[in-house]
């Protein structure tokens, strides 16, 4: 009895499954090489043709793997030049967190509470772990924020506020903490800036004055290596933020799945952290 040939749909299904398996293998292999340091940050990956020959797959399968690694923040694909190792998973963490917050309809205030808990931990850890260079950078970012706080360009103010908060987190020397805090801090600042965009310069000057006192107290506690003072200063800083933040009725009950919130969240670009400190 002659066996029937497999249906075309069956062959297509098997081909797709094989390709997906091959793509996952490439992703995992390159991810391991990047994480272990075998492929250094800034290093150019071999051309598609070489990778295809090495993994014994087609070039489209390699391109599919490169797209996934780029989404994870591990490589940057430069058209006409090739793929380069970035080794920065912040963008992947940002996308994952945004998706989680939207699916579970998490409220903005809930995000703020989580961000606050992490910030207090960062402050306490920074007392023990921050170098003099870290503290100098925090002071530099505070001065930058004070300088731009009276500008009419709200984008500059938001950028400086994000950079100050990230420099505080970086001083704790915990990469996971830094990655998560960076995402939450930028999300909250951008949402608040968008909600308060129509306020005049007097509002922003008053706001800056309120926050400036808290920032200076926080920096002084870090310089003194006083953990209890640092925790108290950070709590005061967060309380001031929360009071201003919840003063806007449009944000109190807002959730990440709301259309108006998505309008602000979608354009957010989480560049490499180093660019925030320029």
From TrEMBL:
Record GO terms (molecular function): DNA binding; DNA-binding transcription factor activity
Disordered as annotated region, ranges: 1-20
Alphabetical keyword list: DNA-binding, Transcription, Transcription regulation
Low complexity composition-biased segments: 7-20
Superkingdom of the source species: Bacteria
Pfam families: FCD, GntR
CDD domains: WHTH_GntR (cd07377)
Chain ranges of the HTH gntR-type domain: 20-88
Database matches in PANTHER family: TRANSCRIPTIONAL REGULATOR, GNTR FAMILY, UXU OPERON TRANSCRIPTIONAL REGULATOR
Name of the protein: GntR family transcriptional regulator
Protein species of origin: Amycolatopsis pithecellobii
